[in-house]
Structure to design on (121 residues):
């Protein structure tokens, strides 16, 4: 099983289905909680200049949230993701609450499909 955590689709992340289980925290797109749209040209130039020294600078904030959220799944065992056909369906609360599975480390090995979860921090 390959589980993928999409936190930056359409910007630095890869859109589309990439794993057996695809998790989409907060819809899976930028802007993730704690990140800012206030990225200046200077931030981008600094990111390019320091990419080999600091691999995940501020400009990649939403992208690096996938790692932070997975770590959160190890430390907090109460994170449930819900199977849903799309982020629009999830936003409209049209997902079946009975299709919930543990997010991250404890994802069942037989799980497959797209799952959405709200993670605040």
């Amino acid at each position: 099983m390959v589980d993928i955590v999409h936190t930056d689709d359409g910007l630095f992340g890869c859109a589309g289905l990439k794993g057996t289980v695809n998790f989409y925290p907060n819809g899976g797109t930028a802007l993730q909680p704690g990140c800012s749209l206030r990225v200046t040209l200077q931030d981008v130039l600094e990111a390019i200049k320091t990419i080999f020294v600091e691999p995940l600078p501020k400009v990649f904030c939403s992208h690096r949230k996938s790692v932070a959220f997975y770590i959160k799944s190890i430390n907090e065992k109460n994170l449930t993701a819900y199977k849903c056909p799309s982020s629009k369906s999830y936003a409209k609360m049209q997902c079946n609450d009975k299709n919930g599975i543990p997010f991250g480390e404890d994802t069942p090995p037989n799980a497959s499909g797209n799952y959405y979860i709200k993670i605040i921090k």
Notes: DSSP finds three helices and five strands in the chain. The chain has a mean pLDDT of 82.
